[in-house]
Write a structure and sequence with these properties.
Length: about 325
């Protein structure tokens, strides 16, 4: 697991610290090292006839990195979590947050398809039901950030958490969004920083703008990785060039992706392609991938389940990097 060592001062409010005498502060403060499990890799999404197919592939960026986590959060909506997905205190073993487990309860219980989507746009152009998910996660992250007071080092453009949302909306159709949560810190005094989470940045990836490709979507975390994209691999990687014969219709899916329009691809063919492609990229015997589908009429279905909850792994790899060090 990629573990992030962070120093959290817990049990005392900032105002009380500033007001208390120094000796009282030293006796009352208790420090705990907090670790965050990070999910890194790629998310592949095919929007096809009457379905959305989502595949994830874990690509380690550091020793012990976790795979992206697919979460069902409604009958016709799924989320993929990337970045800091689970937090716990090292010494006490106290679990601070498990976003994959908490996410379904951080939103209204109504399914995505029950929300009159086009009639509920916000002034910023973000669909109201998407914004509800975004703000609920934002509020949860704020409670975590309040416990982090040591320096945290992240590249300027890298969010601490990225969520990919895919769903079917009644009278609207398929849509895919990304929600990015960035972190900022302010030094209140020497060796004590206030950590804050910025409101999410929303980006709609599907439907694409007029004139853009209607082909596969690919999202990476962190940032652009050195591994070739799915499209590049289809053109140059023998592993993907060989999968055309792995099942009926796979060659048709490959041609549709290369042509830039997957909207007429049949769901069964898209699922067969995603299974063959992600499995080939992961390698034989690897369990670092998962696949799910959302049918317009059938809802969420697991195709390849992940092996198990990533956050339950607790051993810290030797030399694991931290956000607290560059």
């Amino acid at each position: 697991m990629l573990l992030v060592a962070l120093c959290a001062i817990i049990g005392t409010a900032v105002g009380a610290i500033e007001a208390a005498p120094r000796q009282q502060q030293d006796s009352n403060l208790r420090s705990e090292e907090i670790i965050a499990n990070q999910a890194t890799g790629r998310v592949y999404i095919l929007v096809v006839k009457d379905a959305i197919v989502v595949g994830t592939l874990g690509i380690p960026t550091e020793p012990g990195s976790l795979s992206p986590e697919i979460v069902e959060i409604g009958s016709k909506r799924t989320a993929v979590l990337l970045g800091a997905v689970a937090w716990r205190a090292i010494d006490s073993g106290r679990q601070i947050a498990s976003l994959a487990r908490e996410l379904p309860s951080l939103r209204p219980q109504s399914a995505a398809g029950e929300t009159p989507h086009l009639q509920q746009e916000t002034t910023e152009g973000v669909a109201a039901d998407i914004e509800i998910v975004g703000i609920d996660v934002f509020e949860r992250l704020r409670t975590i950030a309040a416990q982090l007071h040591a320096p945290i080092h992240l590249p300027d453009a890298q969010p601490v958490l990225k969520i990919v949302l895919a769903d079917y909306v009644e009278d609207y159709g398929p849509e895919v969004w990304t929600l990015d949560y960035k972190l900022r810190q302010e030094e209140l005094r020497a060796d004590y920083l206030q950590t804050q989470i910025e409101r999410p940045r929303y980006q709609q990836l599907w439907p694409p703008d007029k004139g853009q490709s209607h082909s596969t979507l690919e999202i990476s975390y962190p940032g652009v990785q050195s591994n070739p994209s799915l499209l590049e691999s289809m053109r140059n990687d023998p592993r993907l060039q060989r999968i055309a014969g792995a099942g009926p219709g796979i060659a048709d899916v490959q041609q549709a992706i290369l042509a830039g329009d997957t909207r007429k691809v049949l769901p069964a063919d898209a699922i067969a392609f995603m299974r063959a492609a992600v499995s080939a990229l992961a390698g034989n015997g690897s369990d670092c991938y998962a696949i799910a589908a959302i049918g317009e009429h059938t809802g969420f279905t697991w195709i390849v389940r992940p092996k198990g909850p990533a956050e339950e792994k607790t051993e810290r790899p030797s030399g694991a990097p931290t956000l607290g060090r560059p």
